[in-house]
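User: Here's a chain of 116 residues. Predict its fold as tokens.
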Amino acid sequence: QVQLVESGGGLVQVGGSLRLSCSASGSIFSGNAMGWYRQAPGKQRELVAQIFSGGSTNYADSVKGRFTISRDNAKNTIYLQMNSLKPEDTAVYYCNKVASWARLSWGQGTQVTVSS
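Assistant: Prediction complete.
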């Protein structure tokens, strides 16, 4: 089973930037799209960005224009560049397959806290 390890979170002020990384123990780019998810306290986990096997991307309206998802095939890693951060971006961020039937075991996530 491929293992996912997220990193790069931290405490940042409003308007700041962070770059998250998701490293996989095996290939994660064949087939289904990969996505970044986030879960804020008391809320359900939501998909905020996805990258398809062909390289196209899609974003939730709440992060469009501020977040950029990318990948490094050789490193089995996907990234999430987050700019112009807002307090409502505060959450634990995870990566995983987008298709529920292809979902891998969830990693530990990385905490992002945006202070106002």
